[in-house]
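S.,

Sequence below, as promised.
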Amino acid sequence: MLLANAVWQWLNRLGGPGLILLGLVDNSVIPIPGGMDIFVVLLTANRRNEWLFYALMATIGALVGGYFTYRLAKKGGEETLEKKIGKRRVEKVYEKFRKGGFMTVAISAVIPPPFPMVPVLMTAGVLQYPRGKFLSALGVGRGLRFLALAYLSRRYGTVIISWLYHYYRPLLYGLIGLAVAGGLGAVWYFKWGSNRG
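The prediction came back faster than expected:
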C-alpha cells in the first residue's frame, strides 16, 4: 500500500516530463506493456484540462525512446537484431517493411499492447529506413494513440478517477510487476535464450 502511494505520488509530481522518461524505457528492449497508456490516462484523468499537454509529452517520449532504439539497431546491424529477437520474427518484419515501411511503423505505433513495438523500431534502424520518415511515422502513430487516450480520459475523467480510486493500487502493483518481469525476462533472453537456434 505504501509503495503504491509513493510511486503514484512520484509519477504525479513528474507529470508530463515523466512521460518522456517513461517513453525512453517503454521503447527500449525492456518495455513496460501498457505503461505509457495507463500513465497518460491517470495523469489526464487527474488534470483534465492538460489532456493535450499529456498527449504531446507521451508522443515526445515515444519519439525519443523510439529514436534511441532505432539508432542502436542501426549501429548493431542485422546479425544483432536476428540474435536478439530470432530470425523468423525478423523475416516477418522485413517483409512488412518491403511492402511499406511508413505504414508498418505508423500502424505498429497505434496498435495497443501486447503488440511488440521494439522489433519494428529495431528493424527500421537495421534496414537504414530514412530517419525523417521513421520519426514521422512513429509520431503519427503514437500521436493518434495518445491523443485518443487523453481525449477519452478528459471526457470520462470523473468515472475513471472514481474507478481508479478503488483499483489503482492493484494496477500500480501490476505495472511494477510487469516492469520487473520484463527486465528479468530480457536479461534471461539476452544472456541464455538468444543462443538457442
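The radius of gyration is 17 Å.

Coffee later?
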